[in-house]
Amino acid sequence: WVSTDGASWHPLDPQVFGPATVVIGVGETATGIVALTLHGSANQCDGQTTPLDRWALTPPLQAWTSSDATNWTSHPGPGIALPSGCDGCGVDVPTLRSGTPGLLVVNHNGGTERVGARAAASRDGIAWENLPADAFPSGFAFGDVAGFRSGFIAVGDNPGALGNTGGGETVRAVALSSPDGRHWVTRDLPTAGLDPQAGSTANRIVVGPAGLIA
After folding, report:
1. Measuring CA to CA, how many Å separate 187 from each of 170, 173, 175?
2. In this structure, what are the phi and psi dihedrals at residue 11, rounded to the nearest 5 degrees?
3. Backbone φ, ψ for residue 86 (5° rounding)
4. Tell me: the pLDDT tens digits for 142-199?
5. Quick check: 65 and 76 in contact, CB under 8 A?
6. Phi, psi (deg, nearest 5) at residue 88
7. pLDDT, tens digit (0-9, with 9 covering 90-100), for 82-135
8. Most buried among 104, 122, 164, 174, using CB within 10 Å?
């Protein structure tokens, strides 16, 4: 649906994107709007022998650009890996965010596979640059990412020191900042008052007029 004032709306013709196309994210650039899409198809899940009553999201990952939100042009999407979703149903959906440096698409490396490029950046939604795997800290698990001021802020967790009991790793919540979506600096989120053996993680980040909430 498209609106100029938030009160009056009109739907786009389904043929604009295609009847099986599913929009998974929309972001703003200096020249217009970019939509990221996958395809909807019959669900095929690991170990399932009976038909399911919902769709699974499948490749290709495509980017669409528009200057007026009504007329759209398709382009090949970012070339990041799309791990299988839970139970092997479709693919894990990446996150699209926009900020001053442009667009950032992040593969959370969720689902059942942890492979391939984790993120891609673009100024216009047409040309995409895959970020190297070592752009992010080893073991970092994405929770969320947002455009903030002149760059991006991501939150999630990193494996921490070994716990005192059980010999397992304790995860710690961290925030990553980047001026361009390509180079990131890590900062631990304070955990004063929390059980150090329970660990911590940050799953969402929200931008407000006075700062951020994680």
Report:
1. 17, 9, 5
2. -80, 145
3. -60, 140
4. 889 999 999 999 999 887 644 444 556 678 899 999 999 888 999 989 887 777 677 8
5. no
6. 70, 20
7. 877 766 677 888 999 999 999 999 987 654 455 555 899 999 999 999 998 778
8. 104
Residue at token pair 């013709």: 13
CA–CA distance, 117 with 135 (Å, rounded to integer)? 10
> Distance between CA 200 and CA 182 in Å, rounded?
26
Cα separation, 47 vs 188, whole angstroms: 40
- CB-side exposure of 81: number of CA atoms within 13 Å? 16
Residue 126, phi-psi category: left (phi > 0), alpha (psi -120 to 50), beta (remainder): alpha
CB atoms within 10 A of CB 103: 25
Q: Is 14 helix (H, G, I), strand (E, B) or coil?
A: helix
